[in-house]
Amino acid sequence: MILLVRHASAGDRYRWWGDDADRPLDDRGREQAEALADAYAGLAVASILASRAVRCQQTVGPLAHRTGVDLVAHPALFEGGGAEATELVRDLAAAGGDAVHVLCSHADVIPQVLRDLLLDGLHVTGPRGCAKGSAWELTVEDGRPGSGRYVPRPGSGA
Fold first, then answer.
1. What pTM value is reported for the model?
2. What's the chain look like in SS3?
3. 94: how many CB neighbours lie within 10 A of its CB?
């Protein structure tokens, strides 16, 4: 499985005066990151990749801590990296195996990846979205993402 995670709440980018890549999670975002870790820490996580943006790394940081898997910043997951992120997802799927790969990115990247995968034949069940702190659970079938399910609030039971 591949988990495609949108970073958690990090406040208003227009009220942040520093480099936007340095903008951290707010209180709500930290709660969302813990809920994400609660939801997925029991899985066989093989890799955790995130945008270099602090908010992305903080979103999957608790999951990395609980699973003991190193968090790695990946350039394809930063804002504007949609096509490269799609290739990363395809490569991870093609590698096969039963392990879970967690990728944390941004609101411009995730919809592009999903659009590309839909064009490849990804079957989506249920609602669609890209809310802060949400996840897409992509099931790998025959070396490619075969189905996807949107989880608006991982760990909340909703």
1. 0.94
2. CEEEEECCCCCCHHHCCCCHHHCCCCHHHHHHHHHHHHHHCCCCEEEEEECCCHHHHHHHHHHHHHHCCCEEECHHHCCCCHHHHHHHHHHHHHHCCCCEEEEEECCCHHHHHHHHHHHCCCEEECCCCCCCCCEEEEEEECCEEEEEEEECCCCCCC
3. 11
Strand order in the sheet with 135-141: 71-73, 45-50, 100-105, 2-6, 135-141, 144-151, 123-125
Q: Are 49 and 63 in contact (CB under 8 A)?
A: no
Q: pLDDT tens across 111-131, in order? A: 999 999 999 999 998 899 999
Which residue type occupies 13?
R
